[in-house]
Write a structure and sequence with these properties.
It is a single chain. This protein is 36% helix and 18% strand. It is α/β, with parallel strands linked by helices. It folds into two domains: 60 residues, DNA polymerase, domain 1; 280 residues, Aldolase class I (TIM Barrel). A ten-stranded mixed beta sheet has the order 1-2-3-4-7-8-9-10-11-12, covered by helices on one side. Helix 1 packs across helix 2 and helix 7 packs parallel to helix 10. The longest helix is centred in the middle third of the chain and has 15 residues. It is elongated. It starts with 11 loop residues before the first helix and ends in a 6-residue tail after the last helix. The protein binds S-adenosyl-L-homocysteine and iron/sulfur cluster. S-adenosyl-L-homocysteine (SAH) binds next to strand 8 and strand 10.
């Protein structure tokens, strides 16, 4: 490890190698260090009390543990908490903590911004800066857990960015989260959300840790989906559905389909019929999501509004009648703009405070 490497980027194998080869320490030191970082959320070597003083003084110069810095934290009336984090190069990302009864879910980012420019998404409208490293992805969870003083039960890659355009770092971050010697989070407690990157879905199907997959569909035909999500022009619905079937054959896992309800755009009864036809014969569960209004950045854009409760209900009942299991998702954190990308967009537009 060079002095500029973030220790959070290391896999367990790399920890062992650094400890034994570079520092000439016994293997169990790797386990101890990971216990401090991933178990106890201690990032300061001086606080690692089962290391000798001499070893601590040595490691302080060799071990850089860099979780992101919190620059802003907002709590919603419903308990949802949104974090604006700063990375070592000054870039900012967002994460959201969603309490659900005694459990909670952390929604984390995989990129700074997103290159895919979906027209309803604040992150997509704000452009793309760079990929996150595995350590920057995992660091969001550790920073949240340290702040809250307790571990979260579920992690969803539904923050800023497209995880399957940053597969190397994302898959490594999953290995770190899942490793019993590190964060020890069960595979079933990790969800990757994708806008439909076909090669990434196929790669995930072969990955040795069986995480859950969620796919952002939002429209049942290429014409409409292409307007909402430019990525559809590269990976249209035909190849996407084939990839989902391949994923299902490889993993046997039911796939979650996300569908943001946009008033009079994608919420007509015929869209529900088309969606049911598209998904028929597949093992899926559809989440109908309330649209979180975003500030319109592009001039001349009319923007979208949220579908009325009646339209969502009708859409849901058509899907149900046609045998597609679905759920109308309750909104969380509207008062703090909990849809990822909104806070960073405002902060970079110089409107950080409200
Ligand atoms: N890029 C990935 C993961 C991050 S986006 C993806 O697109 O799946 C996570 C989810 O938030 C996606 O389902 C996305 O469509 C949804 N989303 C984006 N903007 C939204 C908004 N304004 N209101 C509600 N959901 C939104
Ligand atoms: Fe990117 Fe997902 Fe937002 Fe689309 S919805 S712009 S893929 S983050």
């Amino acid at each position: 490890m060079t002095e500029t490497t973030n220790a959070l980027d290391l896999s367990y194998e790399e920890w062992t190698e650094v400890c034994t080869k570079r520092w000439e320490l016994p293997r169990y030191r790797a386990e101890q260090l990971c216990q401090w970082i991933y178990g106890k959320k201690v990032f300061n070597v001086h606080e690692m009390t089962n290391l000798s003083k001499e070893l601590r003084e040595r490691l302080v110069y060799e071990l850089l543990i860099l979780p992101p810095i919190t620059v802003r934290e907002d709590e919603s009336k419903d308990g949802t908490r949104k974090f604006l984090f700063q990375l070592y190069d000054g870039e900012q990302i967002e994460s959201v903590l969603i309490p659900q009864g005694s459990h909670s879910t952390a929604c984390i980012s995989s990129q700074v911004g997103c290159p895919l420019a979906c027209s309803f998404c604040a992150t997509g409208q704000s452009g793309f800066s760079r990929n996150l490293s595995a350590g920057e992805i995992v660091g969001q969870l550790l920073a949240i857990e340290k702040r809250m003083g307790r571990d979260v039960e579920n992690v969803v890659y539904m923050g800023m960015g497209e995880p399957l355009l940053n597969t190397a770092a994302v898959l490594k971050s999953i290995e770190i989260l899942h490793s019993p010697k590190m964060r020890n989070l069960g595979a079933r407690h990790i969800t990757i959300s994708t806008s439909g990157i076909v090669p990434g879905i196929l790669e995930l199907a072969e990955f040795h840790i069986p995480v859950r997959l969620s796919v952002s569909l939002h429209a049942p035909n290429d014409m409409l989906r292409g307007k909402l999500m430019p990525v559809n022009r590269k990976y249209p619905l035909g190849p996407l559905v084939d990839a989902l079937k391949a994923y299902w054959r490889a993993t046997g896992e039911r796939i979650t389909i996300e569908y943001v309800m946009l008033q009079k755009v994608n919420d007509e009864p015929e869209h529900a019929y088309e969606t049911a036809a598209l998904l028929s014969g597949m093992s899926v569960y559809v989440n109908l999501i309330p649209y979180n209004p975003i500030a319109i950045i592009r001039p001349g854009d009319k923007g979208y509004s949220r579908s009325s409760a009646g339209r969502v209900k009708e859409f849901s009942s058509i899907l149900s009648k046609l045998g597609i299991e679905n759920e109308i998702r309750r909104e969380r954190g509207r008062d703090i703009d909990a849809a990822c990308g909104q806070l960073r967009a405002r902060s970079s537009a110089g409107e950080g405070g409200r």
